Amino acid sequence: MASLSSLSFSSQSNLIHHRKLLKLPPSSFPRCLRPPKLLSCTEWKIHILARSFLASAAIPSSPKEVLKPLLKKAAILLLGCSIFVGFVNKRPSLAIAAPTLETSEREELFEKLLEDDSANVEALKVVLYGKMRRGKTEEAVKYVDKLIDADPFEVEWRLLRALCYETMGQLSTAKKLFRDILEERPLLLRALHGLAMVMHKNNEGSAVFEMLYKALELARRQNRVTEERNIKILIAQMHVVKGDLDGSLKKFQDLIHDDPRDFRPYLCQGIVYSLLDKKDEAQEQFETYQSLVPEEFPQRGFLDDVVLAAKSKPQDQFWKDFETEFSSSK
Predict the structure, then answer these.
(1) Spelled out in words, what is the top-level CATH class assigned to the domain 4-326?
(2) Record's InterPro entries (predicted)?
(3) Core-most of 114, 201, 255, 310, by most CB within 10 Å?
(4) Structure letter (DSSP) for residue 81
C-alpha cells in the first residue's frame, strides 16, 4: 500500500455546478486525480474539505474537481470535511464533450487561446487545472483570480484561492479569505474547515474550537440540522488533528449515539483506533462502517482503500505520517 500521504480522496464531495464544463471519458482521466492516488504531501501541503464526486473527466467537471489536489489531507485520514459535505449535497453535475487531446496538448492550446481571449472561462479552467496538477500553485493563483472576476458568485473559486494561499504558507492571507467567505456564508463547512486548519497551523490553540462552537451555536439557533451535525463531526476531527485522540473518540461516540445509522463516525473511530494501535477495536468500527455505507455511495471504493491502509500500515509509521501531515507551524 502507498504511504499514508499518498492516499487521497475526496470529500466528500459536494460541488456547486452553475455551468457546463469540459468532460472526457474515464480512461483519459489523469492518474493524478484518480482516487486513491494524488500528488505527494510535499507537492500539496494542504488540508480540507473538501470534497466532490469524480465525473470521470480529464477536465474538472466543477470548481470542486479543481480543488481535489488540494484536498489530500482530508483524504488521508478522512479528517477533512469535503466527503461529508458531498454526502448530503444533492446538486447535479453538468458537463459537455471535449476533444480527446492529450492533457499537455490541450493545455497549450488553451494557453494560446487566452493570449487572444483572456476572459475565456473554459480556457481558464483548463490552464488552472494543469498548473495545480503540476504543483505550480503560485502560477495558478492568477487564473483563480480571473475566474473569480468572471464569476464572483461562485464560492468554489474563492475557496480555492484561500487554499492556494494556505498551500504557499501565506496563512494570514488565507485566514482573511476564509473569514470573508464565512461573513457571507457562516455555516459553509469547507470554509469553517479551512479556517480551522489555518488557525491550527498558526498555533492559535483553543481559539480554533471557540470559532467552531460559535458556528455550531448558530446552526442550532437556525435549526440547521445537517450543518449542526457536520460541524460536530468537524470538531471531533479537529481533536484528532490536535492529537487529542481520547477526546475525539468521545465526540465520535456521542455522534453515534445521536444517529447510529451515519457511517462517518464509525469510519473516523476506526482510523483513530488504528492510530492508537488498537486493531481489534478498529476492526469492529470498520466492519460497522462497511455495513452502513451505501453500496451506491460514489466514493465507497476509495474509502475502502483508506480502511485497508489503516489496517495494514504499521502503527509507528502511521503516527509518523499523521504528525507530518497535521503538525502546526513553528
Answers:
(1) mainly alpha
(2) TPR-like_helical_dom_sf (IPR011990), TPR_rpt (IPR019734)
(3) 310
(4) S
